[in-house]
Each structure stands twice: as C-alpha cells, then as structure tokens.
Write a structure and sequence with these properties.
Length: about 240
C-alpha cells in the first residue's frame, strides 16, 4: 500500500512539474503566431502604400503623355512595316533624303534613331555633347536596318545605346551637339540644328514617360497578386 502511494505521488509530481513547460510552449506558439500575423499585416499595408503611390504616378504620367502627344503624329505608311510616332514638324521630312538624324517611336513603344548620310557608308554613330559622348551599337550593312542607295545610307538604331543617345540629347538640347558617322573610324560629322535637337529631345521624353507608365501599369497587378498571396497565410 505504501508502495502504491509512493508511485502515485511520484506520478503526480511529474505531471505538475511538466505542466508549466506545456503552458510555456503554448504561450510561445501563440506569441510566434501573433508576431507572424503582424508581419503579414505590415507587409500588406506597405504594399498598399506602394500601390497608391504607383496609381498617383500613373495618373500624372498619363496626363504628361497626353500633353506631349499633341506635338506628335502617328504614321502608318504602307511602304513600311508597322506604324510609328514622329514629331509632327518632322513628319514631312521623313523618310530623309539628305544627311540627318531623326527620332521616332515604333508601334511597340520602342525608341528609334534613323541616321542618314549622303555619299558615304557607315554602320555606327556617336553623339558628342560638351562633356560627354555616347556611341550607338554597330549595325552592319544588311539592306534592312542598314540600307544603301547610290547616294544615301540610312541606318536604324534602337536598344539601350540608342536610348542613351536620346537621353544625352535631351539633357543637352540647348548645348552644341555633334553627330559623328563611323565605319570603323569617323567618316563624317555634322552639327545638330536646334530643331533637330528639340525633335529628338521631345521624342525621347515622350518615350521615357510612356516606358515608365507601362512599367507602373504592369507593376500594380503584380502588387495586388502579392497581397493575395500574403492573405492566404493569414488566419
């Protein structure tokens, strides 16, 4: 009998000793969950703030693009593949029939520079500003992007390096700007007129606003999807 009482006492003692540990584990679990819930809520709220900021920027950029478009015309020439948007005052001067540099935006929203040179072949250009020079990519003669006739070579440039040239001209619109035509080395150089600098600058600014607008318009649905994923982990 004494043995039974002793075993019962030991068993009860063990339960009482272990009970606080169980309570502590439960408390820690609830605390961890609460902290996790707070982290989820904070993350969702931050994303909501970013969505509001994006929407404000989208509204501003839409207004800017709308205002800039008043100075541009969209052209669909049956002799060319696709349409393009060009500074209206240069519509009648494009395609070029003499040496020059024209900017346009293609139907996919890509910034393009079309350089022409009479009498000599070239496959690359550089634009020199007072404190900086930017070079285009090399576009080999292929009768597509680098097209030659008996009198004129016409080369279309696009991509990051063309964008950099557009940005350089926009930043230096009121400064002297020189276009250098190259075929391995320089073959000719001309100065941009004020009208050409304005046309390229305004085209790049329109392109840049449109590009930022499209990026933000794509980002907002992604942010909403991120919120939906976070909410799936909430209670």
């Amino acid at each position: 009998m004494k043995t039974s009482k002793l075993l019962l006492s030991i068993a009860l003692g063990g339960i009482l000793m272990s009970a606080p540990a169980c309570v502590k584990r439960v408390d820690n679990s609830e605390k961890t969950r609460a902290e996790y819930e707070k982290t989820l809520t904070d993350s969702i709220n931050k994303i909501k703030v970013e969505i509001d900021s994006c929407n404000d920027c989208i509204a501003t950029l839409r207004d800017k693009v709308g205002e800039r478009m008043h100075d541009f015309t969209t052209v669909a020439n049956p002799k060319e593949v696709g349409s393009y948007t060009i500074f209206t005052s240069f519509k009648s001067k494009y395609p070029q029939h003499s040496t020059g540099l024209v900017a346009r935006i293609d139907e996919n929203g890509k910034f393009e520079l079309v350089a022409t040179l009479k009498g000599k072949a070239f496959q690359q250009i550089a634009v020199k500003a007072p404190s900086e020079t930017m070079e285009s990519a090399v576009v080999p003669h292929d009768q597509a992007l680098n097209y030659r006739t008996a009198e004129l070579t016409s080369v279309l440039f696009s991509g990051e390096k063309a964008d950099s040239i557009g940005r350089l001209i926009a930043d230096n619109e009121l400064n002297p700007l020189t276009v250098i035509y190259m075929q391995g080395g320089p073959v000719n150089a001309t100065n941009l007129t004020n009208a050409e600098a304005e046309m390229i600058s305004q085209t790049w600014l329109l392109y840049n606003d449109m590009d930022q607008l499209h990026k933000l318009e794509r980002r907002v649905p992604m942010l909403h999807e991120r919120i939906n994923l976070l909410r799936q982990h909430q209670r």
